[in-house]
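Deliverable D4.2, example record:
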Amino acid sequence: IDHAEETGPIIIHFSVDKKPVLLEILEASEFLSGVMKLTMKTKSHKHSEMII
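Output generated by the structure prediction step:
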């Protein structure tokens, strides 16, 4: 690992040739909870569009 960059709750570690080699998710349970909520809303919204 050559260096890392942080974007919100995510830290991406890069190799010397600038390829991502490791992904860290800080406070992962909160992050995944938010992703799941967003996914459920998106699926629900698409389903209601199909019915109309």
